Automatic annotation (TrEMBL):
Signal peptide: none annotated. It comes from Paeniglutamicibacter gangotriensis Lz1y. It catalyses: 3-hydroxy-L-kynurenine + H2O = 3-hydroxyanthranilate + L-alanine + H(+); L-kynurenine + H2O = anthranilate + L-alanine + H(+). The modification N6-(pyridoxal phosphate)lysine is found at K240. PANTHER family: KYNURENINASE. Belongs to the kynureninase family. InterPro entries: Kynureninase, PyrdxlP-dep_Trfase, PyrdxlP-dep_Trfase_major, PyrdxlP-dep_Trfase_small. This is Kynureninase. Pathway: Amino-acid degradation; L-kynurenine degradation; L-alanine and anthranilate from L-kynurenine: step 1/1; Cofactor biosynthesis; NAD(+) biosynthesis; quinolinate from L-kynurenine: step 2/3. Pyridoxal 5'-phosphate binds at T103, S104, F135, P136, T137, D138, D214, H217, Y239, W269, T295. Keywords: Hydrolase, Pyridine nucleotide biosynthesis, Pyridoxal phosphate. The keyword rRNA-binding does not apply.
Length: 429
């Protein structure tokens, strides 16, 4: 088998690593030496200091401070304080974001309050528009809200529905005068395709819809400017590109113009105007804290700050430039080195349409990913047949990309994936 001509060499890439302004960030993560981690879009690695911070919460703030730590250690204010830090990464202002709950729950709150606003402004709009290719939880939550509203309104004709954009229904076609809310993922979790946030938000507003952006695969990965785009709501994860730790609390951003209009229906006491007055009926907090619900997982929340502090030290423009350089390199090398093995690129090559992960389709995708993991290159698999690789500029080098592709080529050439052990499906792929 002949080796295709290479446009770059490992030596060139070693040179690129020497000139990489982000290279020092690698030291800020605790990662095994002999591993190339291409899954930071699913679970970010451990920022140095996060374990110590968690130990401090447990051994000092909890053990010694006990209940006093709600005030003295700032536990109670953490959702807002961390929300203000996170806001800077997504083009939000102070007072527009809280770190809390899960992305799924925050989507519920965002969609429900956007629907409530529309019930007042444009009650004939009863469609929640999203896309078939969206992350499943986003579709399921929209269905849950629609089902609930319909069960409450069973006697009337006021039926809500979830409408899905797909290859048969474009965004332009779908955005008619029945749409109340458009909820999209900025970067698609499977393909890495990225919507133009400015253009889509403007089109939705022109059509009379409110817009919710899911930033799960965008926050910390690509520059996001929610206020610049004039978006309405946004939600996202902290355990992916923001490196907050497994299951760390998510975030919700609410444009200041909507904060005073409707509260979300999970009216727990943390969202109350005065939680410790223990009033016998609900009054929503007059700011973004009305999007909280109940008591937060403080140890996990404390670790979120460690990931945020790393992200805030990096210039997002530099991160984006390196992300595009690494994803371009990965796409080119896979094409040059693995071209004959039937991997089909499903990520857009156009920079403006690409997030920070790269995906390929292959009928044996699952087994190939298992074989890669066996060789110390961690990517992941998503149905149907998709091999997904997260390209994270803060701790990946140019030579990492080269080495990962060489291992991929070797696995494909030797068919090392073609053994029963690599076909056994784990619960989490
Ligand atoms: C990862 C991801 C989620 C995860 O939601 P959880 O509630 O944290 O499980 C939601 N939406 C998108 C688009 C995602 O990529």
């Amino acid at each position: 088998m002949s080796t295709p001509a290479l446009r770059t060499s490992r030596t060139d890439l070693q040179e690129a690593d020497k000139n990489d302004a982000l290279a020092p960030f690698r030291e800020r993560f605790s990662l095994p030496e002999d591993l190339i981690y291409l899954d930071g879009n699913s679970l970010g690695p451990h920022p140095v200091g996060a374990a110590e911070r968690a130990a401090q919460v447990i051994n000092e703030e909890w053990s010694n401070g006990l209940i006093r730590s709600w005030n003295d250690a700032g536990w109670f204010d953490m959702p807002s304080r961390l929300g203000d830090k996170l806001s800077k990464l997504i083009g939000g202002n102070a007072g527009e974001t809280v770190v809390t709950d899960t992305t799924s729950l925050n989507l519920f709150k965002a969609i429900a309050s956007a629907v409530r606003i529309q019930q007042q402004d444009a009650p004939e709009r009863r469609v929640i528009l999203t896309e078939r290719d969206n992350f499943p939880t986003d579709i399921y939550i929209a269905e849950g809200i629609s089902d609930f509203l319909n069960s409450v309104n069973a006697e009337t004709n006021e039926h809500y529905e979830v409408r899905l954009i797909d290859e048969d229904l474009s965004l332009e076609q779908a955005l008619d005068d029945s749409v109340a809310v458009l909820a999209l993922s900025h970067v698609n979790y499977r393909t890495g395709a990225m919507w133009d946030m400015d253009a889509v938000t403007a089109a939705a507003h022109t059509a009379g819809a409110l817009v919710i952006w899911d930033l799960a695969h965008a926050a910390g990965a690509v520059p996001v400017d929610l206020n610049g785009a004039n978006a309405d709501y946004a939600v996202g994860c902290t355990y992916k590109y923001l490196n907050g730790g497994p299951g760390s609390p998510a975030f919700i951003w609410v444009n200041a113009r909507h904060q005073g209009r409707f509260w979300q229906p999970l009216t727990g006491w943390w969202s109350h105007a005065a939680p410790f007055e223990m009033a016998d009926s609900y009054t929503a907090a007059n700011d973004v804290r009305r999007f909280l619900c109940g008591t937060q997982p403080i140890t996990s929340m404390a670790m979120v700050e460690c990931g945020l502090d790393v992200a805030l030290d990096a210039d997002m423009g530099t991160v984006r430039d390196k992300s595009l350089a690494l994803t371009d390199l990965f796409i080119t090398l896979v094409d040059e080195r693995c071209g004959e093995f039937g991997l089909e690129l499903i990520t857009p090559t156009n920079h403006a349409e690409r997030g920070s992960h790269v995906s390929f389709r292959h009928p044996e995708g699952y087994a190939i990913i298992q074989a890669l993991i066996g060789r110390g290159v961690i990517g992941d698999y998503r149905e149907p047949e998709v091999l997904r690789f997260g390209i994270t500029p803060l701790y990946l080098s140019y030579t990492d990309i080269w080495d990962a592709v060489e291992i991929l080529r070797d696995i494909l050439e030797t068919r090392a994936w073609d053994v029963p052990a690599y076909r056994n499906r784990n619960a989490v792929t």
